[in-house]
Each structure stands twice: as C-alpha cells, then as structure tokens.
Amino acid sequence: MHALLFDLDGTLIDSMPHHQDAWVQWYARRGLSMGSGDFFSATAGRSNAEILLDLFPALSVQEHAAMADEKEAIYRELAAPSLALIGGARAFVEQARAAGLRLAVCTASTLPNMALAFERHGIDGWVDTVVSPADTLSGPGAGARVRGKPHPDIFLEAARRLGISPEHCVVFEDAPLGVEGARRAGMQAVALTTTLPAQAFAGFDNLIAVAPDFTTLELSELIRAHRAHPKAPHDA
User: Fold this and answer.
1) Cis peptide leading into 152, omega within 30 of 0?
2) Which end of the chain is less packed: N or C, by CB atoms within 10 Å?
3) Are the C-beta atoms of residues 154 and 166 closer than 8 Å to each other?
4) Taking residues 27-48, what's their average pLDDT?
5) Is the pLDDT of residue 154 over 50?
C-alpha cells in the first residue's frame, strides 16, 4: 500500500447532511418531493451533471448547469457556518503522511464547494493532488473530462498523477458508487458508514475494512489487510 485516495464529502468532511438539506430545499422550491429514500445511495459520488441528466433528460446542458449551481449555492449557504471534519480524519491523514504514503482527494464535488472545505480545514494542503470532474484525463483518453463515480476515472487519474500503480492504492469512501469505482479501477477500498449503514456495502469484494469514521481505523492493520489481498477484482 503506497497511496491513499480519499473521497471528500462524507469521507473527510461531514457534509452529507448539508447536501441532503440542500437537495430538499432545491426540490421544495419547485414544488417537488425528493421521493425515494435511496436518493443518496444512488447518487453519492456522481457529478451534478450526471444526476440532473437522469432526473431531467429533456432539459439542456445549460439548464442542468443552472440547476446545479442553484443547488450548490444552497449547500454552501447551509454548510459555511458549521462544516466539520469526519471524526479522526486529520490525525489519520497526518499518520499516513508520516508513514511516507502518497495522498489524494478524489471527489465529484464542485470547485466552489471544494474551496469552502479547503479554506475551512486546509485539506488541499494535506494531499499531493486533487482530482474531480473539473479535470481532464492525462492517460488513456487524454483530454476527455473525468467522469464521476462509479466510473474509475477519478481514481485512475489520481494514481497516474501520484506515480503509483492502482493495485498499490487504497480508496476511502462513504458511498457504494465510490467503492464500485475503486473496484473498477482495480483498487481495494475502506467504507465509512458516515452516510449509509454497513449493509449498503454488502457484496463488495474489494473492501478491506468498514468503519464508522477514522477514529476506529488503524493504519498498520489496513496495511496488513492490503498485503493479504493486494489486487482487487476489476473490469476497468
């Protein structure tokens, strides 16, 4: 294990309650109900463009962009006063850096949302690189936009930037789509149950740990678990 790749929302920062409230408000402004209770398990890790295309396929790219901007503005208004870190995140990252591991943030978040988290907690200073759908690929398919999870793009691009083979990377995620993206990238993963219960991750054969937050994770144990299963099944 040479690199750790961290999702941002719900993994390093406790932002998912704010995102949920923002979507509720966004829907309410239109006189709509969010409907199904599995909205977040089905969408967490995807880009707004992908989510809104599924929700409103008849609308234009420009209309989707305006909708996304409105929803994210609501999120930032809600999150700005109280956005907190997930328990143990800072200490765990500091331990990983001291151990010589390379680190990346791999997120579907928007640039303004990332800026809010980075300014509040300095997360961009914790890691070697940040990859999001705002970026383009530098490897196969160079120049194409990085796709959201469960596509493996974000994780594979981070591995390329870090100079680390995918099988030597471990992904930290709070969403099944993220764990699936790691699997497709050929990476082992750790699931945090900050957003969804443990049963939401049942059936993933690339998981080496499931934990409520970082306070219960031991880096040495994760290294041993990764050594025992160095290659994740994948179809990237």
Assistant:
1) no
2) C
3) no
4) 70
5) yes
Q: Is the pLDDT of residue 188 over 70?
A: yes
In this model, does residue 54 exceed pLDDT 90? no
How many angstroms separate the CA atoms of 203 and 227, rounded? 21
Q: CB of 6 within 8 A of CB of 127?
A: yes
Statement: residue 236 has pLDDT above 60: no
What does pTM read for this prediction?
0.84
What are the φ and ψ backbone dihedral angles of 85, each rounded to 5 degrees? -80, 155
Q: Return d(Cα 37, Cα 191) in angstroms, integer.
A: 20
CB 71 within 8 A of CB 51: no
Q: Domains of the chain (ranges plus CATH)? A: 3-14+84-228 (3.40.50.1000), 16-79 (1.10.150)
CA gap 130, 138 in Å, rounded: 14
